[in-house]
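Note to self: keep these together.
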Amino acid sequence: MKWTDSLEIALALIDAHPSVDPLTIRFTDLKAWVEALPEFDDQSDRCGERILEAIQMTWIDEVD
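Structure:
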């Protein structure tokens, strides 16, 4: 899983953190949680605010 796999990442985060409201998460925490996913395999420096925002929005869409 890479940074651009926002749907896969969002689904994995829903499984890993089912009680978290994605609207309340800070990007620093979101980045750490993504990097901690066992399926995740990408470099930290390839991530920026735009990518984190896309992951967060996908997470919000999938929860609703």
